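Async update (no meeting this week)

Hi team, since we skipped the sync, here's where things stand on the single-chain job. The sequence we agreed to prioritize is pasted below, unchanged from the tracker. I ran it this morning and attached the output directly underneath so nobody has to dig for it. Comments welcome in thread, and please keep replies under the output.
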Amino acid sequence: MITTNSLIKAYGPKLALDDVSVSVPDGSVYGLVGPNGAGKTTLLGILAGLRRPTSGSVEIGVPRERMAVLPDTPQFEPWLTAREVVDLSRNLSAPEVPPARVEEVLIEAGLEESIDVRVGGFSRGMLQRLGLAATVIGDPQVLLLDEPSAALDPAGRREVLDVVTRLRGRATVMFSSHILSDVQEVCDTVGILRDGHLLFEGPLNDLLVGRAGTIFRIRLREPLDGLVASLQRASWAGSVEQLAPGDLRVTAIDPGQAERSLIRVLADAGAAVISVTPEGADLEDVFLELTS
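Output:
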C-alpha cells in the first residue's frame, strides 16, 4: 500500500532521512519506532504530502483523498464542540457517511461524556482522542498516526489501541510511537529508524524470532526442597535463576522439550506451584540492542 524508494530528506547538511526504503503491506498495522530525532515525523510528513523529499520516490496505492493524518499534537477551534469538530471532518472528507456515525466514533474514542462540550477546555489527552475520531470518521483506506497515544492515560491508550486493532484488514495504518509495548501489542509489521537510517523492517515475528518461548517464569510457595538443583540437572535447561524467594526464571535451550517436561519436574519435586508463565520476546529489548 505504501512504498518509498531510497528516500532522502536533507535539512542543510543534516540528513533527517538517509536512503530509506519502506514497504507497508495492504491492510497491515505498521509500527514506526526509533529514538527522538530518528526521522519518524519527517517520514510521516513526506508520506502525507506535507513535506517534500530531497530525493527518492513515494508510491501510495490510494488517492490522497482516501488518506487521513493525525499529527502528534492535534488542535481545533476552541468554540466548536467535539460533535461539531468530527462532523466538520465528515463533511469535508466523506459527506456520504451518515451523520449518526459522528457520535459512534466519539464514543469509540472514549469521549461519550464530552460529545457536546466545547473543545477549548479539553486536555491534551482529550484532544488526542478527538483527533483520532476526526481521523477515522471518513473511513480512510490509509491512516498515518504520529504518536497517537503519547498523551493518554492507560484507559485512553487502551481505547486508542482498540480502535487501531479494529482497523486491521479494513485499512492500512502506519503509526509512530515511543511506547514499544503498544507497538508490540497491535502491530504486525515494524520499522526501526535511527539517525535517519532504516535499521530493520519486516514482520514483528521475524524481529523477535528465536527469543519467544525460551524463558519461563515460575512462582512457587517455599520451601523449594532441592527444586533448583532438579531443574539445573534437566537436559533442556540452560540456566536457572532464583530472582527472589519462590521466584525462578528458567532459560530453556530446548523450548519444545521444556514444554513437555517442566511440569513433570515440578511435580516430581513436590513443588507448590503458583504460576508458570512463558516470558515472550520483548520489543523494547530488541529495540535497545539495535539502537544502542
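Quick observations from my side:
Residues 154-167 form the longest helix (14 residues).
DSSP finds ten helices and 14 strands in the chain.
Reply here if anything looks off.
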